[in-house]
Write a structure and sequence with these properties.
With 287 residues, the protein is of the alpha+beta class. The chain has helices at residues 32-40, 80-94, 179-182, 184-192, 230-242; strands at residues 8-15, 18-24, 50-55, 64-70, 75-76, 99-104, 107-117, 120-128, 148-155, 158-166, 170-175, 202-210, 213-220, 224-226, 249-254, 257-262, 269-283.
Length: 287
């Protein structure tokens, strides 16, 4: 008799082209890392930058708990675009209140729905305070409490001054005058696995347009090039403020649209951006 393969219901959303597959955690088969690799494969699976597993919260007053898996099966602590997609997933399923509290490995994140129309939502996320202590990022390049600004990072293109932070996950920000001339994707691949980052790192390449606007290209840990990144946008703004290149309210221009990031002095960062529903269906992880 032929064995019955599990059917996994999923929803697919994207935040400015940074796309995620979302499923409820109950009854998922086998290793979640293996499942993430298979379902995210763009040729043999459904295809996405990440796989998000929604679980019951540990604290009853919260709406959900979420685990973030990259396309390579590695688990991330946080995703700014991903958590907005989870907010849309919860709104689509149960139409909860306009404020959602979601548990993540990087702490509880509060989302506020600021707008919606058919298949599209806009959320403002309280992302918390950036981590600037290199021991907590973690980053092995310097001693002391940070912030790590202008660190001279050795690369194949020579020494690059970088700013190292964390938004619950590690980030390395590089300021550039021209994206293509520097070969940012190749550099991102190299910097991600630098031994100075024991947990690897996300990399942002930042071009300052004005005191209120920056353009960013993203190399994400465990994924590669993505069209946008929520935590990466926040880290890019933190780096811009620390290097005195922008103010504290900044529009982040990605290849697929804009995100708004605000970092009040001494306060928490807020990230505002859209989410769009792409598809709903079932995935069959054939052996």
């Amino acid at each position: 008799m032929m064995a019955t393969n599990p059917e996994i219901p999923f929803s697919k959303f994207h935040g400015l082209g940074n796309d995620f597959l979302i499923a409820r955690g109950k009854g998922l088969p086998g290793s979640l890392a293996d499942l993430a690799r298979s379902i995210c494969d763009r040729h043999f699976g459904v295809g996405a930058d990440g796989f998000l597993v929604v679980l019951p919260p540990k604290v009853k007053k919260h709406e959900a708990r979420v685990r973030f898996f990259n396309a390579d099966g590695s688990e991330a602590e946080m995703s700014g675009n991903g958590i907005r997609c989870v907010g849309a997933f919860l709104s689509l399923e149960s139409r909860p209140s306009r404020t959602l509290n979601i548990e993540t490995p990087a702490g509880v994140k509060s989302l506020r729905l600021v707008g919606s129309r058919r298949g599209t939502w806009t959320f403002r996320v309280s992302m918390g305070k950036p981590v600037l202590d290199p021991r907590k990022i973690p980053f092995r390049g310097v001693k002391g409490r940070g912030p790590v600004v202008g660190f001279r990072l050795p690369t194949q293109r020579g020494i690059l001054p970088v700013t190292v932070t964390s938004m619950g996950n590690p980030h390395c920000s590089v300021f550039v005058a021209d994206f293509e001339r520097i070969g940012w994707a190749r550099l991102g691949r190299e910097i991600e696995i630098s031994p100075l980052f024991p947990n690897r790192t996300n990399v942002e390449f930042v071009r300052v347009i004005s005191r209120k606007e920056i353009a960013v290209r993203f190399w994400e840990r465990g994924v590669g090039v993505t069209s946008a990144s929520g935590t990466g946008s926040c880290a890019a703004v933190v780096a811009s403020v620390l290097n005195r290149r922008t103010g504290r309210k900044v529009r982040v221009r990605t290849v697929a649209g804009n995100l708004e990031v605000t970092w009040p002095k001494g306060g928490e960062i807020t990230l505002t951006g859209p989410v769009q529903l792409v598809a709903r269906g079932s995935y069959y992880p054939w052996p």
